[in-house]
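FAQ: What does the model actually see?

It sees only this:
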Amino acid sequence: MNEPFLEERLVQRKEEGALRALLDSRELIDFSSNDYLGFARSPVLRRMVRATTERHSRLSLGSTGSRLIAGHSRLCEALEGEIAAFHRTESSLIFNSGYDANIGLFSSVPQRGDTVLYDQLAHASIRDGIRLGLARSFYFRHNDVAHLEERLKRAVGNCFVAVESVYSMNGDLAPLPKIAQLVHEHGAHLIVDEAHATGVFGPEGRGCVVEASLENMVFARLHTFGKALGLHGAAVVGSRTLKHYLINFARSFIYTTFLPPHNLLAIQCAYGQLADSRDLIRQLHQKIQLFRRLARHAFPCQLLDSVSAIQGVVVPGNQEVHSLATRMQSNGFDLRAIRHPTVPAGTERLRICLHAFNSDEEITRLVEAISADLELL
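And it is asked to produce this:
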């Protein structure tokens, strides 16, 4: 077929050094996936899921419909109760993905005449959800509490403030206690995306909100299952009223076939393993500390400030950072270049994800390889 209107945009993206392509990297040392605790490859979790699935052998392979038609089950209802209890809140509602959850939440809750304030680095799913809604929206500078306060003073209607507890491209943490107090003082509603904090921060990986004891000051939280839990799906946690509202108004929940039962059983197993993973979480943070200690010595000027599993090495320029990532892959390391427009021009970077299963030797070799290559730039 002749599709020049598509080809033109692809050519333009290639000229900008931002053309994306799929890469099968299963033979490389993993420094790119969000599988922070190694659950996706865990033989223990695999055995748990297999045994649990065999005990529920009468369950169908698929949910067979949307949750409001044929996809609801006692299994899902029980799991949502367990997720809510784990994250120390009243209720939870499972969505098919984190993207679906943010789309549903932000497009349905804020109404015409309301205001949404979002961190400048908020995830694309948050921004897309806001765009689909009717409220006015304004960004505030990244982690800039003073700028947020300026925005709050001018907000109208019900005001919602959207932040990530751990930012997916920088790896830095939001100053949640300060933001929560400010939002409370202005009578606004705080929404925290905990996607990259789930399983990594807080007691037993319950997230940064629980770690800071802010459960009662947060309107809604998003916890995903596709990162540290190694699976797929997400849940919005909050009040029972919020859950009932989303069931009635969140289009990405209402109009889609729900997750299959075996996926729900796997999520249940992963949460069970997470509750017993204190040592594994501690091991992950030791790996983070090792990487930062080595990297601060090897390339301090390029290293982003992060205490999370997401580490960034700034290499300005789409072509430059892509070439460096390609050379690292040739050396056996699976890490990816994050290019403009995903990040602002001039802040392109290698995004390095650390895992509890990465050996000290692998981390040391990675830092040495990056350092040697940077010296040639």
